[in-house]
Backbone:
């Protein structure tokens, strides 16, 4: 009976119900998408770095795990010292350059031969490897997003590049240019941002890292297999606070709309509340009925919110193929829980108000 | 077996036939009800002494503002008395907490209002069933069928109040009020919003409930003709009962 009462009440004012459902849906979608976008980008970046195929990455002292944030203060000659370490098979210097023209990218300046040795080489979808100083390799996601084709001239860092190849994604960056050319362009002759190191066998990784720490004290040495665990929002200053603020904002939107919806419901149903009291309904019945209605509204909103999240993700990915939005069951459940708590909290005061109404006054309400 | 015979009579005795020795099912002693208007207490009831026997039907008449509705709300446990005593089936309402009065109302009182007061979102069936749900005994299909047939509502159960005529809505309200077999049915001008034809139907049904089932009824009315359906008429003026005579 309670279920029928709730269902019919929700259907009685379909527009108001729809607005309430959409508010919760937006709340859920905001939480799921903000977290999904953040974790998606971080995870995808980490996987790309892991996908390079090297075993170790050397960075300057106190360098960030987010490579685009690092400069290029290391002399390239460090590579020679690294090559001399036991169990090191090959070393590849990479110069990183942050680019915000036509999108946000980290460009890798590489020496094609050493990078190939460390990473096992690119998978070419179309075109050929770097041959000239202005050759640009673009991964398939970036090519799709930026509508780049092999043979095109592409302007980057105020320089015209020749698109030599479209490569399969997953090798660190989306854009690769010759190391020497990039060093000249950014004024970093004989400098490298990172060194990628391939060991003779993976089980020698720890030994090599230990030796590097001994040889180059203070430098940052990371095993690439750990990158995924290091790429978290808590490692970016302010990002976790931003995510929390956005979640709080989403919760506030849902809570306020639910509050308003249930408050107007209680006002509109003042006489009905009086009738229920005349039938012998006690305060707990009135509160239960309104909180259950709010929860039902919220559950509909959660389903709509999950659908909205996937729809928005599909729309984003169609427009921005390089984006990665990771929607996980864990965060769907968390967003649902947050929305449900918010809905019950938002409906609490109107429900309490309803339970306190004087039956005689309620029955004479017009 | 007739319809009436299938329903347990709610009152504790057979149909009341002037057996004044029976303990009253409803009794008030020096009942006062004061309403606060600004800084002044305005009396709506000023020492009402009133008794209703089990199975009796009583019409309460009087001009607007004389305290009829206040009396109904206080004896129905919807409003708290300011002074005096109210006994319903032996329970002193004035000594009960709000929660206890709610429980007593749930089990012993049925209300019918002038404006029907059906829940607009529910069907006729839902409006009756919710009273059973609140009562706590769950849906009783047998009792439900008997009551709806008695009130001529069997074919209208799946309609919402907005799809029913005024007379039908009031019959649904009566069905809702008696579905849990209350000791007392309190009706606040139940024909006030009905035309004469539907008024007569509703009054006939109230009389049938009283005569056939022994349902105790207290009804407020402005309509002198309506009182002819009742055993006794009580007149109120300025918050007190001025007389109480058997109807012709």
Residues:
């Amino acid at each position: 009976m309670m279920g029928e009462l709730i269902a019919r009440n929700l259907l009685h004012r379909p527009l108001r119900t729809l607005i309430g459902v959409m508010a919760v849906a937006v709340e859920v979608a905001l939480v799921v998408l903000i977290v999904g976008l953040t974790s998606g980008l971080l995870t995808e970046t980490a996987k790309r770095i892991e996908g390079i195929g090297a075993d170790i990455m050397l960075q300057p002292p106190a360098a960030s795990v987010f490579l685009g944030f690092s400069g290029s203060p290391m002399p390239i000659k460090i590579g020679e010292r690294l090559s001399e370490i036991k169990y090191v098979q090959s070393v590849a210097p990479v110069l990183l350059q942050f680019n915000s023209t036509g999108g946000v990218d980290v460009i890798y300046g590489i020496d094609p031969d050493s990078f190939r040795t460390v990473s096992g080489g690119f998978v070419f979808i179309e075109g050929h490897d770097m041959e000239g100083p202005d050759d640009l390799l673009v991964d398939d996601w970036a090519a799709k997003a930026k509508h780049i084709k092999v043979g095109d001239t592409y302007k980057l860092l105020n320089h015209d590049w020749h698109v030599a190849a479209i490569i399969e994604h997953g090798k660190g960056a989306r854009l690769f240019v010759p190391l020497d050319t990039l060093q000249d362009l950014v004024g970093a002759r004989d400098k490298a941002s990172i060194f990628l190191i391939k060991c003779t066998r993976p089980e020698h990784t720890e030994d090599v890292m230990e030796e590097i720490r001994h040889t180059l004290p203070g430098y940052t040495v990371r095993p690439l297999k750990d990158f995924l665990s290091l790429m978290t929002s808590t490692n970016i200053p302010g990002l976790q606070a931003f995510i929390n603020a956005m979640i709080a904002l989403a919760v506030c939107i849902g809570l306020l709309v639910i509050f308003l919806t249930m408050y107007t419901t209680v006002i509109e149903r003042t006489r009905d509340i009086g009738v229920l009291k005349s039938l012998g309904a006690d305060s707990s019945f009135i509160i239960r009925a309104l909180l259950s209605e709010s929860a039902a509204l919220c559950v509909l909103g959660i389903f709509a919110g999950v659908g909205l999240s996937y729809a928005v993700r599909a729309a984003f990915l169609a427009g921005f193929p390089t984006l990665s939005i990771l929607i996980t069951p864990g965060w769907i459940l968390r967003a649902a829980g947050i929305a449900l708590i918010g809905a019950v909290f938002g409906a609490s005061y109107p429900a309490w108000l309803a339970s306190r109404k004087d039956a005689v006054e309620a029955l004479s309400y017009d | 077996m007739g319809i009436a015979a299938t329903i347990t009579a709610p009152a504790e005795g057979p149909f009341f036939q002037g057996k004044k020795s029976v303990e009253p099912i409803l009794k008030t002693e020096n009942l006062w009800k004061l309403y606060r208007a600004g800084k002044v207490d305005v009396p709506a009831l000023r020492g009402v002494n009133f008794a209703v026997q089990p199975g009796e039907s009583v019409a309460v008449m009087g001009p607007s503002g004389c305290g009829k509705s206040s009396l109904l709300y206080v004896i129905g446990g919807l409003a708290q008395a300011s002074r005096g005593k109210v006994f319903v089936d032996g329970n002193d309402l004035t000594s009960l907490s709000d929660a206890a009065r709610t429980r007593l109302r749930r089990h012993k009182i049925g209300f019918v209002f002038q404006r029907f007061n059906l829940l607009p979102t529910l069907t006729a069936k839902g409006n009756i069933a919710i009273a059973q749900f609140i009562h706590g005994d769950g849906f009783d299909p047998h009792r439900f069928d008997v009551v709806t047939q008695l009130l001529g509502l069997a074919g209208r159960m799946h309609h919402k109040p907005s799809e029913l005529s005024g007379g039908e809505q009031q019959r649904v309200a009566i069905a809702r009020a008696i579905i849990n077999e209350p000791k007392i049915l309190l009706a606040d001008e139940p024909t006030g919003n009905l035309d004469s034809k539907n008024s007569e139907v509703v009054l006939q049904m109230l009389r049938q409930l009283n005569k056939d089932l022994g349902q105790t009824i207290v009804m407020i009315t402005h309509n002198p003709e309506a009182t002819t359906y009742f055993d006794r008429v009580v007149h109120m003026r300025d918050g007190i009962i001025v007389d109480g005579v058997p109807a012709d």
Notes: The CA atoms of residues 57 and 231 of chain B lie 5 Å apart. The longest strand of chain B covers residues 40-52. Confidence is low (pLDDT under 50) at residues 1-20 of chain B. Chain B touches chain A at residues 73, 76, 78-79, 99, 102-103, 105-107, 109, 111, 113, 117-122, 126, 129-135, 139, 176 (CB under 8 Å).
